[in-house]
Amino acid sequence: MAAATDSTSSPPRPAKLVNGPPLRHLADRVRFHLLGPVEVVAGGRPVRIGGPKPQALLAALLTTPGRSVEMDHLVDAVWGDHPAGSARAMVQTYVSAIRVALAAAGAGDVLTRQGSGYRISVDDVEIDQHEFADTVVAARAALDAGEHRRAAAGLRGGLSLWRGAAFGGLGAGRLLAEAHRLDELRLTAIELRVTADLAGGEHEALIPELQHLVADHPFRERFWRSLMVALHRANRRADAMAAFSRVRDLLANELGVGPGAELRQTYQEILEDDVRLLAETRSAANVAVLPRQLPADAPAFTGRASEIARTIRRLHADGLAPVVIAGPPGIGKTALAVRVAHLIRQQFPDGQLFVDLRGYGPGQPLDTAEALSWLLGSLGVAPSRIPGSADERALLYRSLVADRRILVVVDDAAHADQVRPLLPGSASCAIIVTSRHSLRGLAAREEATVLTLEPLPAAESLQLLRGVVGTRAVNADPAAAARLADRCGHWPLALRIAAAQVCARPNPDIAAYLAELTGSSRLDTLAVADDDRAAMRAAFDSSYAALRPEDQELFRRLGQLPSPDVGGPQVAALTDGAAADVRSGLERLAAASLLKHAGAGCYRLHELLRAYAADLAERNTATADGSRSECAVLRFPGTALAAVATPQPCTR
């Protein structure tokens, strides 16, 4: 094996603005070590921080430098599910002690109070955790460019930062989950370094190390494959085949599964004495980098326990049949899909793919050919080898995932035809699709399970507010918090926007913010400036724009009805006689998740969507110059108007 080489240090990055003052760049004066026992080093000497709990608290702050960490999250990181009764007071005591220690190192002002939490303002280049993550990214790029020795040297430098278990084994709750993530990244870095060394011809020197690695991590098939390749290249073909037999028996006896497709293919190549295996030049994407594309799990994800359980049951029952998570914009479809994917990702060791079809997003939707090109590239196919037609790409995609355990998450699909070519076609895979449309065609033809999300129950809405605003602010005025949840329609995106707006104030006050959520201004108030992805009106606008003109008109009419329920009498009143056409329009609105089925022949408009529809009708009237006002378009005859003016209960 090549001798260890120190990685070249990168130049300091400019200070960043992250919800506050610039992050401080401390040069070589102060360094923070998390890849092992938590440690602060100033001028080359350790600074005493305190016992395990202050160290865990500092680690929790340093995992997200430049961002405020709420008090509840800090308590969770230190004590987990069993906090001490005085945990909040103890956090404040620990923060004071940490400030004193940092002040002795000349950095006492980097730890500040922000809202109901604390923020440490240092650049992530001062933290070994983030330095290590950067080396892994750089090494992947070097491997893809064929620069194997540079990649191996960089990874050795990054791995040398590790001094033991992440955070020294301290912490609970979210901090413990972060420690597990870092340990997984360390193993991935070792896999990458082994791949780089193999490509550089270091196979004989690697064999003893790989024998230790497969003993320490017996279920990581990458290490077994590398061991087989190294043995084969060292003219130890029988030993390579014996290694395959060992891992095959291990997986069968311990997990009840067989080796993955890549391991089986390597065995076949050894069996056939394939010369390509002796001079392998595949790119790093093909050899070492499995797709791990899931977005980060929402830190304050709340509720949806029954929906999570149902989705996982369906995925386990039939991997061929997709699970569609449908619902109106902002209801939490993507968050739920990502949460489920994280919960089951260990069952898909060959990778997790994530593709955003942008069905309702800004810009043009991703067409089938583009989506397949993205997936093929993620699976290691070089751009020059991706076929030209969508049909050929779909065939290659299904061939690559066949018999591999891969999870696919397809986000924001507009229609079923966007999704069908992306279905893996192999029962070893699973696919989750999110869409504002119910995608009934997938249910009819591909036996998809369609799960339609509703607003959160009241208790889960309050739980979400506590997770973002903090328990103290909610408990200070529980009645105001309950009213705020009601005004947000118990809609997850609306609740998160409102919570973010409350947190942005110097003194979080739910009652003061609630006063702003009045009347027709509600949808405009539920928005984060300069971010259409965090604005309720913008979210609804994109769904409304996708409707047919006649369905847009029908939707506006629904906003003028005195009741959220739409049944037989109301349908009759909406038209001069073409009730069947109106019913078809109502069905299309329901399929687009802008209307809810509420019994035979009955529909219901959610509160926020009703406010949006009424606002559209009012704006349409105001811009019609009197020539064709929305009221005139309604053309209710006397009996029909009476039917609408007296709300009729829906038949349940």
From TrEMBL:
Coiled coil: none annotated. Residues 1-10 have a biased composition (Polar residues). Gene3D superfamilies: P-loop containing nucleotide triphosphate hydrolases, Tetratricopeptide repeat domain, Winged helix-like DNA-binding domain superfamily/Winged helix DNA-binding domain. The keyword Transcription regulation applies. Keywords: DNA-binding, Transcription, Transcription regulation. This is DNA-binding transcriptional activator of the SARP family. Residues 21-122 bind DNA. PANTHER family: TRANSCRIPTIONAL REGULATOR REDD, TRANSCRIPTIONAL REGULATOR REDD-RELATED. One of its GO terms (molecular function) is DNA binding. Belongs to the AfsR/DnrI/RedD regulatory family. One of its GO terms (biological process) is regulation of DNA-templated transcription. Residues 21-122 form the OmpR/PhoB-type domain. It comes from the Bacteria. It comes from Amycolatopsis australiensis.
